[in-house]
Structure formats: structure tokens, C-alpha cells
Amino acid sequence: MKFSEKWLRTWIDPELSTSELCDQLTGAGLEVDAVETMADEFTGVVVGEIVELHAHPKAERLSVCTVFDGSEKFSVVCGAPNAREGLKTAFAKVGSELPDGMRIKRAKLRGVQSDGMLCSAKELGISDDHDGIMEISDALSVGSELREALDLDDISIDLDLTPNRGDCFSVRGIAREVAVLNRMPIDEPVVADAAVSTDTIFPVEVRASSACPKYLGRVIEGVDVAQVAPGWMVERLERSGLRSIDPVVDVTNYVLLELGQPLHAFDLDSLEDRIVVRTAEQGEKLTLLDGNSIDLDEESLVIAHGGGPLAIAGVMGGAESGVTETTTAVFLECAFFSPETIMGTSRRYGVQTDASQRYERGVDSALQADAMARATELLVEIVGGNPGPVVEVIDEDSMPRSMKLTLRAARLEDLLGVRIEDEEVFGILDRLGLRPRDVPDGWEITTPSHRFDIAIEEDLVEEVCRIYGYDAIPTRTAHAALPLKPSGRDGIDPAALRTLMTHLGYNEAITYSFISSDRHDLFSPNVQAQVIENPMSKEQSVMRTSLIPGLVDAVVGNIARQSTSIRMFEYGQCFSGDADNLTQGFRLAAVLWGLKDPENWAQRSKNVDFFDIKGDVERIVAVGGRNATFRASTLPGFHPGQSADIYIDDNVVGTVGCLSPQLVGSLGVAGEIFVFECDVAPLLLKRQLHHEEVSRYPSIRRDLALVVNESVSSESVEKLIRESVGDLLVEFRLFDVYKGKGIDSID
Questions:
Q1: Does 117 score more than 60 pLDDT?
Q2: 507 and 429 in a common domain
Q3: Are 142 and 161 members of one domain?
Q4: pTM of the model
Q5: CB neighbours of residue 462 within 10 Å
Q6: Which controlled-vocabulary keywords does the entry list (predicted)?
Q7: pLDDT in tens, 398-438
Q8: pLDDT: is 212 or 727 the higher one?
Q9: Residue 485: per-residue pLDDT
Q10: Is 694 contained in some domain?
Q11: pLDDT (tens digit per residue) in 158-194
Q12: Domain co-membership, 135 together with 241
């Protein structure tokens, strides 16, 4: 939304500089995108009139002009092609200073004295036009200061409005905001509807009332479109980004910018039968005012008459019904269209206009009568004419309704983080036109017709906050007590255990809960298994007491399918005892076989070993904040030198190791198979973490070389060191083992 600052100040004139006004608007959410001066600084330039013009005696392209400044005449040499007798233009007298710093002096040009300079708009920093000297309206007085005559001390302000603030797409809407911010009244122009001086009407029919709930139309006869819009209107239009076209269009554009209500004027003589607001029909076409011809679809809302479509409703009029030089009577349209209707139409045809921009964001549904009266007043004043009665078609059921909302004081304080006095909140709501009413714990408001963006309580909080001032809310550093508390969970989720196994590279397997008695005796000879009375086969004759047999069978099956690397785990129940004393519990088991890494050209891949599966066990136990220890043991079905019991807090929780070569060979498998199996319950227990301050002292590393008997485990060495050093020990790691020459034996 671009507008003239001086135009705004005719509505409301706070004691603020341009910079302060822009800062205030931006702070209230109406972001100022650009500020543009109307002209650069210059002095001594007046309105001059060329009273005589002669050819230069020595230069074909130069003229010698006699310029009158209201009191005396001056001889000025000029080369502009548009210089002519009777033209009023910008005259820089001797001593004037132009924007580029040049001071005008008396000089001779090709032998003829020149007592000043006739200026182009570009030379004065008014515009980029340098095709000739400025042509100034005859209405301006000769000799008047050009800056004052053209009101060049004005500023053009361009706002980048958010889509929800359609109410601010007008000078009136911006003035409302400034009035609220500065606690001032608006000096709104008093508009009296022109007296009806003809009975002529043009019928209106609305067939799509949901898309067009309100339509106003009026005939104005006897208009003189040869008249020219007044300079003040043209200047305000141009400083708002619109060019002057003809007096009728200029008036509709002016009301659009002033009040925010789009209007359209039809040449009455081009209309047939009646105005009909309807959706387009199959095969209809329309040539728009910009010359483009479009094929209308059946979803488009159009303004039509007996001869077909006249305009795309709320977007652009048609070329055939537009005002021309021969127009003597107009039909003035002022309507309220639903935003959804115009938004869809504008996008489908790729046509974006000032009217559609406002209709898409929403127009005040109570504004149409005022806009019609204002436009009629200006038209009669500028082009004359006799206004007829206003024809109004309205569907109350389709019109927007005001909403009643409640703003709770507690909710306001909760969202803003600061308490605003009740009187201040009430005053803000009242100045916004929300008609507040005190209710228990807050305020009840009724939305005005121009604030269609307010729909929920949080919208009211935003309104109070932006008017109160975001910068008025004190900045506070966020602070809160953050005591370390237990998580409230006694252990680890079994699902997390499964996730960990997949992260370690294992695939989950689900095997049968029934195994053969031979497999049971091989791995659990000392555990009683429940015998199945009617087994489906010999291989499923007892209930499993271990997950390992099923995983081993799965390994054999996958090797037969040409797998080169197997990492599988199973989380399931095992059973022990007889029918009268059967116990069951969840266990976790895993199996490793084959290559440690995929085959690679850069290095030869190694096979997995005992320490790979032992490391995985340590990682699993560490999730609960615990440490696993291992003690060598002889286990059924395991390699006698590569098997161990798994301990957590000195309690045996499982086994780990390599299956015996004889067993692996009997299965027809080449290489070693490594397995582990644990009770799940100890793994799910979670040790409470204790947090300590990071030491302020640097760490000290000590490399210790110890000579021990080969039968001594690294675990016993670590235990001895930890007991000796105590809490000062942070980390212990075995990084090298040497045996051989020089250390043959030790007693």
C-alpha cells in the first residue's frame, strides 16, 4: 500500500516527524518498506510562463524564450522541443541552486544572453522524464515557488502489509491505526450523498448471492468526460502509484485509495436490459480493459448484461463497456464480493489488479454506501452530471457477521509474560473499535465490520500487544530451576534393546519355541525341559530352554543360501521344568559367523572372533549404566578355551563364547560360530546416574607394564588397579599384550 504522507495528514496529523511516523507504523505491524521524496532539494525555482518564443539566430535547435515570472520578463535560451508560447514551466532564475549543486548564472549561449534556465523534471529530481521541459498546469499561479505550487515537500510511503490486514489498504485504514496509536480522533471528510436529480435507474439482478451478497448501482447522466481531474487528485494518485487516466476512472481509483472500496464505472449507453451478477456460461469470452481476450470458465463470477459478460467481478472490466471520450452517462458499480470468489478467479486468469488485491484480502462489508456517496460527490464536482437513485441488492444471510469474543486477563498475561493494567487494555480495545464490555475475568468484544481478521482470543492478544508496544514489554532473561531428577523409569524399554541390537548390525530372527531333545541335551544337559506330548515332529519334541539352538539352525540355513556374513539376534521366551513346575522368562541371544566386514578391494576382510561378540555384550550392558565382566568357564557345546560366563554386579546373567569345533563340523559349517545368551531382566535394570563437576585439573596418563602369569585374566588386573587407585581412576584400558622371548615363565 503506497500513499502520500500529506494525504494521510489531512485525516490525522500527529506531532511526529516522517521518520517517527514510519517507526510507529512498523512497530504496530504495518511495516514501512520504502520512503520516497517527491523531489530533490533545490531553491529559487518558480512557475514561469513563456510569453514569447523566437528561433535562435545562430543555432537551429535552440530557441530564445521570453519568460514571465509574475513580476518581470527574462530572456532564456532553451533547447527543449516542447517549448512554446503560453506554456507554464519550471523556471530557475539566476542564483537558483539545482539538486546537483549547480548554481544558475547569467551566461551567453551562442552569442545570446540567457538569464536563467527552463528545467526538465529530471533536472529537478522530480522524475526521470528528460524529454523536454516540465509542463505545468495552467491552474498554478505564475511566479509561485515551484516546490510549494506542486507540493513537492510531500513523502510517498510504501507499506508491506501482511495478508490479514486488508483493512489497511486505504488512507482511511492507515489513519485509523495512527489514531489508535496516538490516542487522537480522525478528521474524516464529511460526505453527503449528492441530491438525486434524475429518476433514471438501471435494473440489477444478483443470481450468485453467496459470492456477491451486496451490490449497489447508480446512474449518473450528463457527465462531461472532457474535464480534467484536479491537480491535487492527480498528485495523490501518482504518489500512491497510480497514473491519471480520465476523470471518471481517476475518481474511482481515488475512492479506492481513500476508503479501500473498489468501484467500476460502465458506459451506460453500452449496457442492455439489466445488470446481472452471475457465473460465466460455457463458451463465453471477454476482452478486458488491458486488451487481453480470455475464455471464461463456469466457476468465474462475472458482471453481465443482455449482451453477455461486461467484467470479471472484482478483478477487471471489459473493454467494450468502459468509459470513453464520447461517454455522456455512466453506471457506477460498488459491490461486496466474497474474498474466496475473487481469489480463485484472479489466480485462474493470472490477472492481479488493485481491486482484486483488496477483495482477496477482504473489504469492509459496511463500506459500500459511503464509497458510493463519496464517488458520486467527486464525479458531480469534477465532470458534472445528474445522479439517479441508488439501486441496492443485498442478501443478509450471506453477509459477514460480527463476532463476539472474550479476552481473559489471565490468558493475556500468560501469553505476553507481563501484566497490563485493566484500564489500559480496555482503552486499547475501545480505540480499536472493538466495543469492549467488562465481564468476569476479562472483556467481551464485538468485532467491527472492517476487522474481519479477528477470529480467536489470540488475535485480541496480538492487537493489545502491538498497540501497547512490543518495545514496552520489559525484556527478561529466561530463568528456571532445573533440578536433576530421576527419569521416573525403573529400567530400559525392551523395544530400546531391540533397537540397540539393530544399531549394532544384527538382524532379528524369530525361531520355533520347540526344538529336538538332541539339541536341548547338547546345550542344556543339566536343565529339565518340558516334553511335548503330541509333537508335530521329532525336531520339535521339547520346549526350548535356550535360544541358541534355534539361532544355530538359522545360521546353517542362511549359509546354505550363500550368506558370507551372519549377525542375528532373538528376543524371546525360554521354558524350564515340567508341567507341574514350569517357569518361563525372556532371554536375549545373538550369533555371529563369517566375515567381519563386506568384501572390499582396499583391504582383506577378517572373520569375526570372540572379542567382537564380547564387545557387543559390553555395549548392551553399558546402556543401563553397568559394566559387564567375564570369567572363563567350561560350557556344554562351547569351545573349552573360548567360553565365559557374563557377570553383572557379581551375578551370572548369561554366557558368551565360540561353539565347539566338533559341533560346528557336525553341522557342516566352515569357520567359527560365536554366540551369547543373557537373561533379559538384568539387562533392563537401569543404574541411577550420578553427575559430578568436571575436574578443573588436567588428566594424567600412566602406561604401566606388568609381568603376570598367562593364566591371570586382564579383569583381575583391572580390579586390583581400581582397588588400589580408588576414585581417582577415570579410565582403564588394556592396549597391548606381549608374550614370548624374554618372558618365558614366571613363578
A1: yes
A2: no
A3: no
A4: 0.66
A5: 17
A6: Aminoacyl-tRNA synthetase, ATP-binding, Cytoplasm, Ligase, Magnesium, Metal-binding, Nucleotide-binding, Protein biosynthesis, RNA-binding, tRNA-binding
A7: 999 999 999 999 999 999 989 999 999 999 999 999 999 99
A8: 212
A9: 63
A10: no
A11: 999 999 999 999 999 999 999 999 999 999 888 877 8
A12: no
Report the distance separating Cα 632 and Cα 372, nearest Å.
100
Between vectors from CA 247 to CA 142 and to CA 203, what angle results, nearest 5°? 160
- Would you tell me the crossing angle of helices 354-361 and 339-349 to the nearest 10 degrees? 140
Query: Residue 307 has which C-alpha cell?
Result: 449482451
pLDDT of residue 745: 59
Element (H, E) at 109: strand 107-109
* Residue 592 φ then ψ, to 5°: -125, 140
User: Alpha-carbon distance 629 to 619, whole Å?
Assistant: 12
Q: Can you state the percent helix, strand and coil of the chain, rounding each to 5?
A: 25, 25, 45
DSSP string, 192-248: -PPPP-------EEES-TTT-SEEEEEEEES--TTS---HHHHHHHHHTT-----HH
Euclidean distance between CA atoms 71 and 57, whole angstroms: 27
Q: Is residue 189 assigned to a domain?
A: no
Alpha-carbon gap, residue 5 to 569, rounded angstroms: 77
Its domain, for residue 29, covers 2-37+156-182
Cell of 640: 573349552
- The reply to whether 259 and 338 lie within a common domain is yes
3-state secondary structure of 180: helix
CA dist 205 and 275 (Å) reads 6
| Cell numbers found for residue 169 | 489498504
User: What would the pLDDT profile of 552-579 be if each residue is shown by its tens digit?
Assistant: 999 999 999 988 899 999 999 999 877 7
Distances (CA, A) of 497 to 435, 611, 622, 724: 61, 21, 11, 35
Which grid coordinates are listed for 636?
Answer: 556344554
Percent of the chain with pLDDT over 90: 67
160 - beta bridge partners? 31
* DSSP notation for 446-496: E--TT-TT--SHHHHHHHHHHHH-GGGSPP------------S-SB--HHH
3-state secondary structure at position 359: helix
CATH number of the domain within which 51 lies: 2.40.50.140
Asked if pLDDT for residue 747 goes beyond 70, the answer is no
